[in-house]
Amino acid sequence: MWFTREHFAICNQLKLAGLQPRFEPGDVVARGFADLGFEEFQVLPGVNLLSLTAGTVKPLPFEHREHFFWIPSVDEAVELIEASGYQIASCVREDMRDWMIALSSDSLALIEIAAPDLHLAVLRALAEIYRRR
After folding, report:
1. Are 60 and 23 a contacting pair, CB within 8 Å?
2. Domain enclosing residue 114, as ranges
3. Which of 119, 31, 60 is nearest to 40 (CA)?
4. Cα–Cα separations (whole angstroms), residue 46 to 23, 27, 72, 76
5. Are residues 79 and 102 in the same domain?
6. Is there a single domain that holds both residue 51 and residue 80?
7. Both 52 and 93 in a single domain?
């Protein structure tokens, strides 16, 4: 899957807010480069990284992990939302254009998020939860 700059920016913000990257086989992680933007990688067994840009495979030294952030899938992001005490009250496609997600919680106000794709909507919702902590 190819991600937009906004996907990368949100996931990087999530890391800064406390969401630690995972390095389990199958996970997608990325890192930013000041002059180049972001590069995404698929974690392979043995903590090797497959660059989804260049197609190269390299080992990930433990000391370099701090430079990466995790890009959770839609399912993983929903699990993180639920683990934060929120439920997805609704998820609908409006005018065949944007996804609208409404999050509810017993103790907090309803959160409504819109985005052009479902993955981005769920990531925006998760980022809003982390922002409100």
Report:
1. yes
2. 74-132
3. 31
4. 10, 13, 20, 22
5. yes
6. no
7. no
Shared-domain flag, residues 80 and 128:
yes
- How does pLDDT run across 79-132, given as a tens digit for each residue? 999 999 999 999 999 988 999 999 999 877 789 999 999 999 999 999 999 998
Cα(30)–Cα(70) distance, integer angstroms: 6
3-class DSSP state of 57: strand
Distance CA 47, CA 45 (A): 5
What's the number of domains the chain is made of? 2
95 and 65 together in one domain? no
- 102 - beta bridge partners? 90, 112
d(CA 126, CA 85): 11
